[in-house]
């Protein structure tokens, strides 16, 4: 199982939030490039970078994304605020190996499908839900869209990987929602990256043991910044 550390950017800094709530934000690093280099030095083979200003519609962090890309020799997958073909192109120009689209799959099917058609497997679907209810725009808006129906839809359009987050667990240290991950993996023929809730290496080991084979990667965020998970130990534990 691939372990992917997360770097969430807001105003050029590394931050973490609980359940995606900006009022429950903690700033951990003034220098995201140094943090990215540290993760790679500990063995990370890929980085997960999210532009929270883009997701909230309050700005963008393209300069920081480009600086991270130049500083490390591993692929970075970039999400947050990609709402047009131009936004997608800008992330690739900044050095993203893959981009993560979420809101656009719900709000503008035509443009989302155009982006998938152009970039193929370099497009990952970010599907974030509270229970079965998909949330968009940095998790701030609820929708009537069903989680598993959306998985089926994006798979039909050509998406081959989904990052699934159970929002109620994100940043809370309660472990991954394995039952929800099973349901997402069963909805369509996609690979699934688990996100949201890891607190300890034991959470990763439980995920590897209990999740279906399609769940072949996991993202760790808050636990790395709080120090409850050591990245090198986590990578070794689930390799």
Number of strands: 12
Main sheet overview: 8 strands, parallel, barrel
Radius of gyration: 16 Å
Q: What is the name of the CATH superfamily?
A: Aldolase class I
**Percent of residues in beta strands:** 25-35%
Structural class: alpha/beta
The main sheet orders its strands as 1-4-5-6-7-10-11-12
Brief summary:
By secondary structure, the chain is of the alpha/beta class.
Describe the structure.
The protein has 239 residues and is α/β, with parallel strands linked by helices. The protein has one domain (2-238): TIM Barrel (Alpha-Beta Barrel), CATH 3.20.20.70. Helices cover 39% and strands 30% of the residues. The protein is globular and about 40 Å long.
Notable characteristics:
single chain, 239 residues, alpha/beta, TIM Barrel, eight-stranded parallel β-barrel, 39% helix, 30% strand, globular
List the helices and strands and how they pair.
Layout: E1 2-10, E2 13-18, E3 21-29, H1 32-41, E4 47-51, H2 52-56, H3 62-71, E5 76-79, H4 85-93, E6 98-101, H5 103-107, H6 109-119, E7 123-130, E8 133-136, E9 141-146, H7 147-157, E10 161-166, H8 178-187, E11 191-195, H9 201-210, E12 215-220, H10 222-226, H11 231-238
Parallel strand pairs: 1-4, 1-12, 4-5, 5-6, 6-7, 7-10, 10-11, 11-12
Antiparallel strand pairs: 1-2, 2-3, 7-8, 8-9
Helix pairs in contact: 1-3, 9-11
């Amino acid at each position: 199982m691939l372990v992917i550390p997360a770097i969430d950017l807001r105003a050029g800094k590394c931050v973490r939030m609980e359940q995606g709530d900006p009022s429950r934000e903690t700033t951990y690093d003034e220098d995201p490039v140094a943090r990215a280099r540290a993760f790679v030095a500990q063995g990370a083979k890929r980085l997960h970078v999210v532009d929270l200003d883009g997701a909230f519609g309050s700005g963008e962090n393209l300069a920081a994304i480009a600086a991270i890309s130049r500083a490390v020799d591993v692929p970075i997958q970039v999400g947050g605020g990609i709402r047009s073909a131009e936004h997608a192109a800008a992330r690739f120009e900044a050095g993203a190996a893959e981009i993560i689209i979420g809101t656009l799959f719900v709000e503008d099917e035509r443009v989302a499908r155009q982006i998938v058609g152009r970039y193929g497997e370099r497009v990952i679907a970010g599907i974030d839900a509270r229970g079965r209810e998909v949330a968009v725009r940095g998790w701030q808006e609820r929708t009537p869209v069903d989680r598993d129906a959306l998985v089926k839809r994006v798979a039909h359009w050509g998406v081959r990987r989904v990052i699934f987050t159970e929002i109620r667990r994100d940043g809370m240290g309660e472990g991954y929602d394995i039952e929800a991950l099973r349901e997402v993996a069963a909805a369509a023929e996609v690979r699934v990256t688990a996100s949201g809730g890891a607190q300890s290496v034991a959470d990763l080991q439980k995920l590897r043991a209990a999740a279906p084979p399609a769940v072949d990667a996991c993202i760790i965020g808050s636990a790395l910044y709080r120090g409850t998970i050591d990245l090198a130990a986590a990578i070794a534990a689930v390799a």
